[in-house]
UniProtKB/TrEMBL annotation:
Pfam families: DUF2147
Region (Disordered): 57-82
Keywords: Signal
UniProt KW Transcription keyword: no
Ranges for domain DUF2147: 67-112
Highest rank taxon of the organism: Bacteria
Name the UniProt record assigns to this protein: DUF2147 domain-containing protein
Length: 113
């Protein structure tokens, strides 16, 4: 009985360790327009794809980084234009910024879905 309890405790702690190791950007986010966007690990980077709404299935960015701060490409799903972008996880918000020519920038805040 004691051995099985210890084995179960070890398995639980291993699972918790991998969950803690996940990046905070992973998961589903709600954009200001109400669309749900999912951010997944895609081979060392993080890929964001629209799950709902008019642009369902479209990529809206590819980012890399860790610990809540990320850089990469943000894509506007309305016209498929790419912009240099950043994303920062702030609690239950994901703050994204995309810039054209490093001058014309736009910020958007998403919430955890």
């Amino acid at each position: 009985m004691l051995r099985s309890s210890l084995a179960a405790l070890c398995l639980l702690s291993l699972g918790a360790g991998s969950a803690l190791a996940e990046e905070p950007i992973l998961g589903q986010w709600r954009s200001p327009g109400g669309r749900i966007v999912e951010v997944k690990d895609c081979g060392g980077q993080f890929c964001a794809t629209v799950l709902t709404g008019q642009h369902k299935g479209k990529s809206v960015g590819t980012l890399s980084g860790k610990g809540g701060e990320y850089r990469g490409t943000v894509t506007d799903p309305r016209d498929d234009r790419d912009y240099a972008g950043t994303a920062k996880v702030e609690g239950s918000r994901l703050v994204l910024e995309g810039c054209a020519l490093k001058v014309f920038c736009r910020k958007q805040s998403w919430t955890r879905a």
